[in-house]
Amino acid sequence: MSERNSAAAAVTIRPLGLEQSAAATRLWEEAGLTRPWNPPAEDFARAVGGETSAVLGAFDGDELVGTAMVGHDGHRGWIYYLAVAETRRGSGLGRQLNDAAEEWMRERGVPKVQLMVRSTNAGVVDFYERLGYEDGEVVVLGKWLR
Ligand SMILES: CC(C)(COP(=O)(O)OP(=O)(O)OC[C@H]1O[C@@H](n2cnc3c(N)ncnc32)[C@H](O)[C@@H]1OP(=O)(O)O)[C@@H](O)C(=O)NCCC(=O)NCCS
């Protein structure tokens, strides 16, 4: 994807490399997005190394201030680990990262983007609705394969 600059929040958004794993997972911990059953460094490495996935990072200079993991499965696009550093929230950076994620999908011909919100994080649904997302009225089922 092309680099995106925003004068408003003075950040640059670009795909991360493996060397940014520690900074990204630190941000995810701070944002309360990690769980013991999802080792964040493994999630990061799998997404960065995948052919149909990436982790987009927002930089203020050298400082990583936000992330969005993106991927597509041949049908839908998915966003995970959308996180903005605590001190940067409320200035439009979450929206910018979502815009960058949507652009990443469009560049790959993905017609629809989806995401999951943990029931313990239901407050963030209002944020996504501001960005144009709608409740898909689906129940997500899962099963571990490891
Ligand atoms: C959710 C999160 C990414 C939002 O980032 P942010 O930079 O604060 O959001 P923005 O400033 O871009 O806000 C975009 C819009 O959503 C609104 N908004 C932001 N947070 C909101 C909230 N909790 N409830 C309702 N609206 C919200 C803003 O007012 C803004 O509206 P506007 O552009 O129409 O004026 C950030 O709070 C975060 O990192 N949270 C912890 C991690 C998390 O829960 N991620 C989601 C996992 S599913």
TrEMBL record:
Source taxon at top rank: Bacteria
Keyword Acyltransferase: yes
InterPro entries: Acyl_CoA_acyltransferase, Bact_Acetyltransf, GNAT_dom
GO molecular function: acyltransferase activity, transferring groups other than amino-acyl groups
Gene3D superfamilies in alphabetical order: 3.40.630.30
Keywords (A to Z) from UniProt: Acyltransferase, Transferase
N-acetyltransferase domain boundaries: 11-146
Entries under Pfam families matching the protein: Acetyltransf_1
UniProt xrefs under PANTHER family: AMINOALKYLPHOSPHONATE N-ACETYLTRANSFERASE-RELATED, AMINOALKYLPHOSPHONATE N-ACETYLTRANSFERASE-RELATED-RELATED
NCBIfam families: PRK03624.1 (NF002959)
Name used for this protein in its record: Acetyltransferase (GNAT) family protein
